[in-house]
Amino acid sequence: MANFVRVIQPGLSTTVQDLGRxxxxxxxxxESGAMDRFSYKLANLLVNNHRNSASxxxxxxxxxxxxxxxxxxxxxxxxxxxTLNDQPILxxxxxxxxxxxxxxxxxVIEGNYGYLAFSNGGVIxxxxxxxxxxxxxxxxxxxxxRALETGDTIPIRDSVVMPSLSSRKIVIKSEKVTEIxxxxxxxxxxxxxxxxxxxxxxxxxxxxxxxxxGYRLNGPKLEVPKKSLLSEGTVLGNIQITRDGSPIALxxxxxxxxxxxxxxxxxxxxxxxxxxxxxxxxxxxVLTDIDTAVEKLVQQQKVIxxxxxxxxxxxxxxxxGPIRRNAIKISRLIRANK
Length: 338
Description:
Elements: E1 4-9, E2 15-17, H1 37-46, E3 55-59, E4 64-67, E5 71-84, E6 87-89, E7 94-97, E8 102-118, E9 153-155, E10 179-184, H2 193-201, E11 204-210, E12 214-218, E13 232-233, E14 238-241, E15 247-250, E16 257-258, E17 262-266, H3 268-275, E18 282-287, H4 290-313, H5 325-337
Parallel strand pairs: 10-18
Antiparallel strand pairs: 1-4, 1-9, 2-3, 3-8, 4-8, 5-6, 5-7, 5-8, 10-17, 11-12, 11-18, 12-15, 13-16, 14-15, 14-17
């Protein structure tokens, strides 16, 4: 059996992503990886993968794919309408896919980024610097360092067994984001008290200049410190203030170093909400401390941990069904010949 998925329509910008290559930023390579890491991890959890298994990340519009093998999939992230063989399927739950099936993922209705995970190890392209993530501007990783194109074959492993299949679903509440929490950046004290207060009191808006490198924000200009800075390493979520006083939030494909002053860093627990905000969406920055930022991240991870424990506890609840690969394949073959 051929173990791949063929691309019928690639979507707007669909790439292979995992958790990136953070250990190679010191060598000058962008970290890359999934933009919405909570949704990415959730997709892998749903299909019983390791959290760093490569998935497909799509932007604005999803792909149409034909499966050349059996699999289980999960769709997470931005809200989409999707069909499998013209029948609607739901997000945030496991869907069984038979060989020959066609999956169609439409436009992203809410949010920007969606994730498609495949069971039994995800997308198995060749790793580059310990990661399968695609970095488009360096043409590295994924499928030849580029977005998917019509006719591409995405290598996966066939899969016919899924523990706790009927239980593998989760409800993710949709909420309107009006606040993004941040911790003080390394150059916070270089900004005047007036500028610090202005940064926290003004309403900002996601501009049209938004991509995997970063989001430029529209809003009142901030006073920029006059002191020159040497280039420093960048961190996911850093908020740089450019020479014209505009904030830019640095994201997955950001440059490895930067010389603009960093007024703050978006906390990790809020990054998934931030990257899913649409162009024109308004919000305020809210200052928090490191302890609170860590606690929020722990609570977010607890959602994933508690969900996994629930599924694990229910893995032997009836109906158990056949658990052996060959038994399932034989059963399908018999049904097909009736």
